[in-house]
């Protein structure tokens, strides 16, 4: 072939090459494939409910009273101390009695005056009755003397009642314990002026003890009087058995919970005010078969919870809404949305999207010993095989 004949062919080849390069430059780049993420999965299965609902409670006296003076005044002494064991009749506090003593003395003086007036009216009535028998006075005059005597007698009785009342008022300036118990609170101090009935001390009576705790509204109906409750101390010790004595008829205005009181034996009860834990038998679900998942498998979707379910044939994931009913330790109890045997992603849930391809994560095995090699027989299982030279 001559040089003149080869020149047009070379030119055509060059033009075709330039056109091919131009077309290649104008085509769109291929999209980057989404990486296949490794995830941990588990098959959902039924297992027994392990934990029981336990509530923080406090040991209280069956009867706890707030004691105060029956009269107003200034506190001069307070003998009661916080935590002190007191007996019935023991003096707890005292008011300044001076004003009440003066009032009692005034009442006694009024009684003495009323008694004198009554005696004088009685003597006059006796004399006038004699004069009437002799017809020296009229019947109307005798009736006036009888009325005077009756008025003096009434004044005497009023003075007697007033004297007794003032005497009681003076005695009320001393506050005494009605029953034996323990002082649990001090609400007034010496030098303070208190009104009648204002609490000064709080006393927990000796005798029966209660364990008091609160339950939410959805469980209050299950706890009934007479049902058994197990009680254990905060710092350990022997577990006690009690029975529900009282369930509040209405919810607390702030917490919206219902107060439950459990009667326990006073002889073995923990110290007054001690923190304990109560497990109502009526709320126990121990041994009940339920579906449970680790909390790491859950994610928030809309207003509820959801999990990623693995489709093994296509090795893709899809979102499945679930309903969480409660917790069992560190696991969530699933009420609906899953069936036993479903494969659920339990790790890496926050980096997935619907339809994304995944692979099952396999934990790395130990390094093989020198002079050996590992033959893989099944996913996740390895069998060591000796090497030959």
Report what the structure shows.
It is a single chain. By secondary structure, the protein is α+β, with helices and mostly antiparallel strands. The chain folds into 3 domains: 33-49 and 285-389, Beta Barrel (conserved putative lor/sdh protein from methanococcus maripaludis s2 fold), CATH 2.40.420.20; 57-61 and 207-283, Efflux pump adaptor protein, beta barrel domain (Elongation Factor Tu (Ef-tu), domain 3), CATH 2.40.30; 98-166, Helix Hairpins. The protein has helices at 3-26, 98-133, 139-171, 217-220; strands at 37-43, 46-48, 55-61, 64-68, 73-78, 85-86, 91-95, 174-176, 181-186, 193-194, 199-205, 209-215, 228-233, 240-247, 258-264, 275-280, 289-294, 299-301, 304-311, 316-328, 331-336, 343-347, 358-360, 372-378, 381-386. β24 (372-378) and β25 form a beta hairpin. The protein is rod-shaped.
């Amino acid at each position: 072939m001559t040089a003149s004949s080869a020149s047009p062919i070379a030119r055509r080849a060059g033009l075709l090459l330039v056109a091919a390069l131009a077309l290649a430059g104008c085509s769109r780049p291929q999209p980057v494939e989404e990486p296949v993420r490794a995830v941990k999965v588990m098959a959902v299965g039924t297992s027994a409910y392990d934990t029981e609902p336990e509530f923080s409670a406090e040991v209280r006296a069956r009867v706890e009273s707030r004691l105060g003076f029956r009269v107003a005044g200034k506190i001069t002494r307070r003998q009661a101390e916080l935590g002190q064991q007191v007996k019935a009749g023991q003096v707890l506090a005292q008011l300044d009695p001076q004003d009440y003593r003066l009032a009692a003395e005034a009442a006694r003086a009024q009684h003495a005056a009323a008694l004198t007036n009554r005696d004088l009216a009685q003597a006059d009535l006796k004399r006038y009755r004699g004069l009437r028998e002799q017809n020296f006075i009229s019947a109307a005059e005798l009736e006036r003397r009888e009325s005077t005597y009756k008025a003096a007698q009434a004044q005497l009785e009023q003075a007697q009642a007033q004297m007794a009342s003032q005497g009681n008022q003076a005695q009320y300036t001393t506050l005494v314990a009605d029953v034996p118990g323990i002082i649990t609170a001090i609400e007034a101090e010496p030098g303070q002026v208190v009104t009648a009935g204002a609490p000064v001390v709080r006393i927990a009576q000796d005798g029966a003890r209660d364990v008091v705790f609160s339950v939410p509204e959805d469980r209050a109906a299950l706890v009934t009087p007479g049902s058994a409750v197990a009680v254990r101390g905060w710092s350990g010790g022997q577990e006690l058995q009690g029975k529900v004595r009282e369930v509040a008829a209405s919810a607390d205005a702030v917490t919206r919970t219902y107060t439950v009181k459990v009667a326990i034996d006073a002889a073995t009860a923990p110290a007054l005010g001690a923190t304990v834990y109560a497990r109502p038998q009526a709320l126990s679900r121990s041994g009940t078969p339920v579906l449970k998942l680790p909390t790491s498998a859950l994610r928030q979707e809309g207003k509820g919870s959801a999990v990623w379910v693995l489709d093994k044939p296509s090795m893709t994931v899809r979102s499945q809404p679930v309903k969480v009913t409660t917790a069992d330790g560190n696991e969530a109890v699933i009420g609906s949305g899953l069936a036993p045997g479903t494969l659920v992603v339990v790790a890496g849930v926050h980096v997935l999207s619907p339809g994304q391809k995944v692979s099952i994560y396999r934990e790395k095995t130990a390094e093989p010993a020198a002079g050996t090699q590992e033959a893989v027989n099944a996913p996740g299982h390895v069998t060591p095989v000796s090497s030959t030279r």
